[in-house]
Structures are given as structure tokens and as C-alpha cells.
């Protein structure tokens, strides 16, 4: 028998031996293991439920904070808007004065040009034109004045 | 519910508790507590290990090594292992088993560990290598060395009866 055969024989012989039983009560070990597994399960469920409750509370708290913060921001926005309120728009009042505008004023010339657009321009040789006089008579205009702030402008 | 059911736990206990105790004796004088705790830890697992037997050996090893760090426990263990009562098979073999146990305890711890895990734990050399944190070749070499040392020390008459 060579060396390896001897070792194989020894291996088989050793394998046939059984370790001495331990001084442990099998039922007790299984009972303790089962109880521990149940504890782990219940602990896991409790932790899961507690986590859920905590998350719900955190969500509610964050929601409340969001509302409070939003209200503060809106208040602040209103306060800032009140501080930087723009000046009231300048009122422009038209004042019709009794005196007729100057014939050479912008308004008088504009009106005259509009009238010419409607009734064609008078012939150049028509009496009353600039070259030969004209029958066209400008209707009397009432002067237009505008008040801008404290100033009054005539047109 | 635990990932390891009571039936599996019971069969694992029946098949491996004694071998685990023998394995733990390499480091500690109180293998019972360690083996019991290993099974309880296994029951606590929410996901069953791929190889529950290898997992049990790992847990037992870690716990036994941690316990053996106490000098007092180490001295007491050394006093106990000399008694060599860790292997039995049948009443006829009791004497041989005691002798083998004594020889086994005389081996270096790493060699003894491989032999126990391989012969009575049924672990593969890959699993033993993982337990010991060494290569598979090293685990195999330790096993061979341990066997050769046992062969030299055990009475030739005992081995001759195997053939």
C-alpha cells in the first residue's frame, strides 16, 4: 500500500468517526431560535410601523412649515409692494381755453392739413390760396392745452 | 418569518451541531454556547445563506476566535483538550476515537481546522479557504499535512483495521 492509499484509508477511517454530541438540548436550541426569529419579525414590523409614523409626521411638519413660510413670503411681498408703490399716474387734463390758437401753431396746421385731405387741396390758383388768395376759411379752433404735472403746455 | 424554517434548522442541527462543536474546540472550551448562538443567529437571518453549513462554520469560527482571545479561557481550554474526548463513533471504537481526538488536538490549529471542516463538516476546500482567509491550494496543503501527521502519530494497527 503506497503512501497515498494509506492516507485515503486514514481519511475514510476518520470520516467514519462521529464527533461527540454536544451537551446542548436540541429542543431548547430550536425553541430559542424560533423565539428569536419571531422577535426579529415583530421588531422589524414595529420598526417599519414606527418609520411610517415618523415619515408621516415629518411630512405633515414639512407641509405646515411650507404653509407658514409661504404665508410669510406673501406678507413680505405685500409689504415690499406697499413700500415700492409707483407714483400715481400723471393726469393730463385738457383745457380748452377761450382764445383761438395761433394760425401757425402745430394744431392749427394739422387741422388744416386734415381738412385738405378730406376736401382735396384747393387749387393753387384758387382765390384765398397762398398764391392767389382762397375762399377756404379755417374754422375757428379752440386752443388745446395740456397740463402735465404743474406745467401747462399749449398746442 | 425567518428565512430558515424550523425543519431546516432542525436537520442542520442534527447533522452538524456535533461537528461544529468539535470545530469550535480548536479555540474554546465552551463550544456549546457558541454552537447554540450560531443556530440562533441563523434563525435570525432574514435571507437564508447560500450555504448554511459554511455560514454556520464561519459564525462558529468568528465567535470561537473572539472567545479564545481571553488568556484565562485559553489556559483552561489547553487543560481540557488534553482530555481528548471530542470524537466517538461506537462503543467499540471509543478507545480509538479518544486516541484520535488526542492526536487531532496535537495538530497545529490551522491543520486541525481544515481536517475537521473537511472530514466532519463536509465543506469544500474553497469554503475552507474562505474561512481561513487563504488560497485553496493552501487549504489543501494544510489538509494533506494534517493527514500525514495523523498518519504518523496514530498507531499503525488502528489504520490497518481500515483495509
Account of the protein in words:
With 155 residues, chain A is of the alpha+beta class. Chain A has 3 helices and 6 strands. Chain A has a 3-stranded antiparallel β-sheet, with no helix packed on it. Chain A has a two-stranded antiparallel ribbon with strand order 3-4. In chain A, a hairpin with a 2-residue loop joins strand 5 and strand 6. Chain A is rod-shaped and about 145 Å long. Chain B is 71% helix and 1% strand. Chain B has 163 residues and is mostly helical. The chains are: A alpha+beta (155), B mainly alpha (163). Chains A and B meet through helix 1, strand 1 and helix 2 of A and helix 1, helix 2, strand 1, helix 5 and helix 8 of B. Strand 1 of chain A pairs antiparallel with strand 1 of chain B, so a sheet runs across the interface.
Oligomer: heterodimer
Helix-residue proportion of chain B? over 70%
Q: How can the largest sheet of chain A be summarized?
A: 3 strands, antiparallel
Rg over C-alpha atoms of chain A, rounded to the nearest angstrom: 54 Å
Radius of gyration of chain B: 16 Å
- Kindly name the structural category of chain A: alpha+beta
| Biggest sheet details of chain B | none
What sequence of helices (H) and strands (E) makes up the elements of chain B?
HHHHEHHHHH
Greatest chain-chain interface? Answer: A-B, 30 and 46 residues
- How confident is the prediction overall: mean pLDDT of chain B? 81
Strand ordering within the main sheet of chain A: 2-5-6
Query: Could you tell me the strand content of chain A as a percent range?
Result: 5-15%
Mean pLDDT of chain A: 78
What spatial form of chain A do the alpha-carbon principal axes imply? rod-shaped
Helix content of chain A: 40-55%
Amino acid at each position: 500500500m503506497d503512501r497515498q492509499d494509506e492516507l485515503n484509508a486514514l481519511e475514510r477511517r476518520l470520516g467514519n468517526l462521529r464527533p461527540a454530541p454536544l451537551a446542548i438540548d436540541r429542543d431548547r436550541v430550536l425553541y430559542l431560535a424560533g423565539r428569536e426569529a419571531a422577535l426579529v419579525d415583530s421588531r422589524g414590523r414595529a420598526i417599519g410601523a414606527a418609520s411610517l409614523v415618523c415619515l408621516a409626521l415629518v411630512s405633515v411638519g414639512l407641509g405646515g412649515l411650507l404653509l407658514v413660510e409661504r404665508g410669510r413670503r406673501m406678507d413680505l411681498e405685500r409689504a415690499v409692494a406697499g413700500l415700492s408703490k409707483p407714483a400715481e399716474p400723471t393726469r393730463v387734463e385738457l383745457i380748452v381755453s377761450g382764445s383761438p390758437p395761433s394760425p401757425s401753431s402745430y394744431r392749427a396746421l394739422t387741422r388744416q392739413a386734415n381738412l385738405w385731405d378730406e376736401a382735396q387741396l384747393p387749387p393753387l390758383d384758387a382765390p384765398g390760396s397762398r398764391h392767389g388768395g382762397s375762399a377756404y376759411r379755417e374754422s375757428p379752433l379752440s386752443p388745446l392745452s395740456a397740463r402735465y404735472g404743474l406745467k401747462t403746455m399749449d398746442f | 418569518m425567518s428565512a430558515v424554517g424550523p425543519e431546516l434548522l432542525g436537520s442542520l442541527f442534527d447533522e452538524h451541531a456535533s461537528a461544529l462543536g468539535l470545530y469550535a474546540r480548536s479555540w474554546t472550551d465552551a463550544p456549546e454556547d457558541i454552537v447554540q448562538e450560531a443556530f440562533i443567529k441563523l434563525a435570525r437571518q432574514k435571507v437564508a445563506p447560500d450555504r448554511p453549513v459554511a455560514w454556520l462554520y464561519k459564525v462558529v469560527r468568528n465567535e470561537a476566535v473572539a472567545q479564545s482571545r481571553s488568556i484565562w479561557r485559553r489556559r483552561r481550554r489547553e487543560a481540557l483538550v488534553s482530555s481528548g474526548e471530542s470524537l466517538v463513533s461506537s462503543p467499540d471504537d471509543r478507545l480509538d476515537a479518544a486516541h484520535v481526538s488526542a492526536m487531532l488536538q496535537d495538530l497545529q490549529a490551522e491543520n486541525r481546522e481544515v481536517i475537521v471542516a473537511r472530514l466532519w463538516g463536509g465543506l469544500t476546500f474553497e469554503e475552507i479557504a474562505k474561512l481561513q482567509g487563504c488560497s485553496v491550494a493552501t487549504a489543501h496543503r494544510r489538509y494533506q499535512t494534517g493527514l500525514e501527521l495523523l498518519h504518523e502519530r496514530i498507531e499503525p494497527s488502528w489504520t490497518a483495521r481500515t483495509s
